[in-house]
């Protein structure tokens, strides 16, 4: 038991001891509101805490604005305009991702130090069907992952707002074993992702769930629970932009993996080799204060009988040598 908490391996917002643990922290009213919303609804809206945000947003948009040719290809469905992990070369994207106030807030909400590990910069709406991030990247202990989406410009119903299903984070969580699929034996990595899309659609139908839309003002942000069903609404006006940045966060003292590609009881775990965006340093896979042995990681994730590579040996070699692995 750590600091009077009988469940240190459960995020504060998910804990059955939420009320008493939050009261013990005695947070200010705004933090309590965010924690309660995240627990009950699966998301919380806030103003992004950076006095330089407007300047950063304009510089990001200027740097990554798509050409007219690329914009036309996107409208024709021939190009994806997202920029993944541009934090590597862009100090503004990195600063938004590693914002100190956001890191402190997330540590309070989850009960562990946090770090950003992935950024996505969007000049247009994703129009992505509703999905749960927890299938694509998760942690052990479960729940120690979240996303923060921030509007880089005003967003309304015509340029593709974020959509989400309030409370869907509390629906039962399902993995490969529940949908009757062994990821190891798929012809290509993640070929069964379509089965999850069908499952999520059926869960929405059977729960008679209705989506909400986040029509955000520039600088407004939303934190969402790893299991919240969310996506991008249709962009009704394809001539407009819809600038936003998503940052995904993990928490310390966890193991990081991709459930979609994993069958743990078949000996197949897609361990992620993670870098902290804020420091540029690798973050080890941990469990209860101990690092997961590299020999186990290398055996649990290498290649399948179908031949698709899960963890190239050169990445493991870099990790052993203390070098960046991404």
Summary tags:
326 residues; alpha+beta; Jelly Rolls; six-stranded antiparallel β-sheet; three-stranded antiparallel β-sheet; 27% helix; globular
Structural notes for this entry:
With 326 residues, this protein is of the alpha+beta class. The protein has one domain: Jelly Rolls (Sandwich). The chain is built from nine helices and 15 strands. The chain has helices at 18-25, 29-40, 53-64, 68-75, 91-97, 100-110, 193-206, 294-300, 313-320, and strands at residues 43-47, 83-84, 114-122, 138-140, 145-151, 162-164, 212-214, 220-225, 230-232, 244-251, 255-257, 274-275, 282-283, 286-287, 290-291. It has a six-stranded antiparallel sheet. It has a three-stranded antiparallel sheet with strand order 7-6-9, with no helix packed on it. Strand 12 and strand 13 (282-283) form a beta hairpin. The model is unreliable at 303-312 (pLDDT under 50).
Q: What is the strand and helix layout of this fold?
A:
Layout: H1 18-25, H2 29-40, E1 43-47, H3 53-64, H4 68-75, E2 83-84, H5 91-97, H6 100-110, E3 114-122, E4 138-140, E5 145-151, E6 162-164, H7 193-206, E7 212-214, E8 220-225, E9 230-232, E10 244-251, E11 255-257, E12 274-275, E13 282-283, E14 286-287, E15 290-291, H8 294-300, H9 313-320
Antiparallel strand pairs: 1-8, 2-3, 3-10, 4-11, 5-8, 5-10, 6-7, 6-9, 12-13, 14-15
Overall radius of gyration: 20 Å
The largest pleated sheet is described as: 6 strands, antiparallel
CATH class: Mainly Beta
Structural class: alpha+beta
């Amino acid at each position: 038991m750590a600091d009077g908490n009988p469940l240190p391996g459960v995020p504060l917002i998910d804990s059955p001891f939420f009320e008493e643990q939050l009261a013990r922290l005695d947070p200010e009213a705004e933090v309590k509101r965010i924690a309660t919303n995240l627990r009950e609804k699966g998301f919380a809206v806030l103003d992004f805490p950076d006095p330089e945000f407007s300047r950063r947003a304009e510089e990001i948009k200027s740097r990554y604005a798509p050409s007219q040719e690329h914009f036309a290809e996107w409208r024709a469905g021939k190009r994806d305009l997202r920029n993944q992990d541009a934090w590597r070369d862009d100090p503004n994207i990195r600063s938004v991702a590693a914002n100190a106030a956001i890191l402190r807030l997330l540590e309070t909400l989850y009960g562990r130090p946090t770090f950003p590990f992935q950024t996505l910069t969007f000049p247009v709406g994703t129009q992505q069907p509703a999905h749960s991030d927890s299938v694509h990247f998760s942690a052990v202990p479960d729940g120690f992952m979240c996303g923060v989406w921030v509007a880089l410009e005003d967003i309304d119903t015509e340029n593709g707002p974020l959509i989400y299903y309030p409370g869907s984070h509390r629906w039962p969580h399902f993995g490969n074993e529940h949908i009757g699929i062994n990821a190891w034996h798929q012809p290509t990595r993640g070929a069964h992702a379509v089965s999850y899309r069908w499952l999520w659609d059926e869960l929405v139908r059977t729960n008679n769930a209705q989506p909400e839309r986040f029509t955000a003002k520039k600088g407004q942000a939303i934190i969402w629970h790893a299991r919240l069903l969310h996506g991008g609404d249709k962009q009704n006006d394809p001539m407009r932009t819809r600038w936003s940045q998503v940052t995904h966060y993990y928490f310390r003292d966890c193991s990081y993996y991709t459930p979609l590609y994993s069958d743990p009881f078949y000996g197949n775990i897609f361990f992620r080799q993670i870098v902290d965006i804020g420091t540029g340093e690798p973050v080890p896979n941990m469990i209860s204060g101990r690092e997961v042995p590299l020999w186990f990681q290398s055996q649990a994730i290498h290649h399948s009988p179908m031949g698709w590579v899960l963890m190239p040996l050169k990445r493991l070699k870099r990790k052993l040598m203390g070098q960046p692995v991404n």
